Amino acid sequence: MKTLACMAAxxxxxxxxxxxxxxxxxxxxxxxxxxxxxxxxxxxxxxxGAMANGKAPYDAKVAETSAAxxxxxxxxxxxxxxxxxxxxxxxxxxxxxxxxxxxxxENNEKLMxxxxxxxxxxxxxxxxxxxxxxxxxxxxCKACHDDFRNK
Length: 151
Ligand code: ASC
What we know:
This protein is an all-alpha fold. Helix content is about 70%, strand content about 0%.
C-alpha cells in the first residue's frame, strides 16, 4: 500500500513537473499542432479580410462565425512551441521564440487580447467596426510574424 501511495505521489509530481512536450507524442506532433491551429485561424481570418478589403461581399453571419473561430484558435498554437521543436517538419519558427520567450509570450498575449475584440466587432454587424478590428488583429499577427517567423 505504501509503495502504491508513493508511486501515485511520484506520478503526480512527475505530471506536474513534466515539460509541456509530454502533451505530444513526438516533436513533429507539436509542430503539426501549432501549424494546424494557425492554419485554421488564418483561413477564417482570411475570410474576414476578404470582406474587410472589399474582395468578398460582406456577410455578417460569416464574419461572426469566422471571428469566433479566430478567437478560439488564437489560444492554441502557443502550447505547440515546446522545447525540442525548434527545428523539424517544415517549421518556419525562428530560434528567437525560445531565446526571447518573454517577448514571444507578450506577442501571443497581444493577439489573444485582440481576437475577442474582433469577435465583438463582428457581432455588431457593422462593417466599419469589423474593418477597424480586422486591421488591429492583422497588426498583432504581423508583429509576431516579423520577429518570430521565417519567410
Ligand atoms: C492573414 C494571415 C496572416 C496575417 C498577416 C497579417 O490573413 O494569414 O498571417 O493575416 O498577414 O499581416
